[in-house]
Amino acid sequence: MADGRTVRGDRTRERVLAPGVELATVKGLERLSFADLANASGVSKAGIATLFGSKQELQTAIAARARQILDDRVFRLVLSAPRGLTRLATLGTVWLDYLADPQLRGGCFFAAAFFEFDAQPGPLREIVRDDMNRWLTGIQSMIEDGQSIGEIVDSVDAADEAFDFFSIGVTANAMIQLDLVDRPAVRARRVWSRHVELLRSTP
């Protein structure tokens, strides 16, 4: 049976981390303060400091929570789709739906952190880098899997194609946040679908 203090601690952590992910996409993870989270969560600054110890530990926990959200809302749905082109197309649909979710005020946490930490050496940059690499290699694996079952043409370079698809998602996130073009999510879905069709192997 779980210790009551542990359960309460876990619940309080979630009260802090849930708004922490959202606030980090708006303010930036580096600028996010204990005071910001105290105001958003109702947990005191002292309570947050007790739970996480340091700002870096808090930032690391927020990144981990963001990764869990992304896995729950995107990757699990994608991996349940049939292998090959269907899975690759599903990734575009689910990921772009996630990016366009109006409840995500700052869009995708990692797409935002990608630009925040790309030129800032340190542990947070490595966390973001590892997660971005996980995206790239995951897409590449989907393409290679599609090639292995004969649905995707063998002549394409899976790493290059993964770069293209990843770029569509990151660009879409920025376009949606900036409202830079008319219906950016719709345009991104069309571009994604067109790229998927270009990979189709003709019997």
What does this structure look like?
This protein is an all-alpha fold. It has one domain: Tetracycline Repressor, domain 2 (Orthogonal Bundle). Helices cover 74% and strands 0% of the residues. The chain is built from nine helices and no strands. The mean pLDDT is 88.
How would you concisely characterize the structure shown here?
The chain is mainly α. It has helices at 4-27, 34-41, 45-52, 55-79, 85-99, 109-117, 123-148, 158-178, 184-198. The protein has one domain (4-198): Tetracycline Repressor, domain 2, CATH 1.10.357.
Terminal CA distance: 58 Å
Task: Find the CATH topology.
Answer: Tetracycline Repressor, domain 2
CATH superfamily: Tetracycline Repressor, domain 2
CATH class: Mainly Alpha
**Whole-number total of structural domains:** 1
Beta-strand residue percentage:
under 5%
The helix tally amounts to 9
Stretches where pLDDT is under 50 for at least 5 consecutive residues are none
Mean pLDDT: 88
Q: Helix- and strand-based class? A: mainly alpha
Extended strand count: 0
Which architecture would the CATH scheme give at its second level? Orthogonal Bundle
Query: What is the N-to-C succession of helices and strands?
Result: HHHHHHHHH
Helix content: over 70%
The major beta sheet can be summarized as: none
- Rounded to an integer, what's the Rg over CA atoms? 19 Å
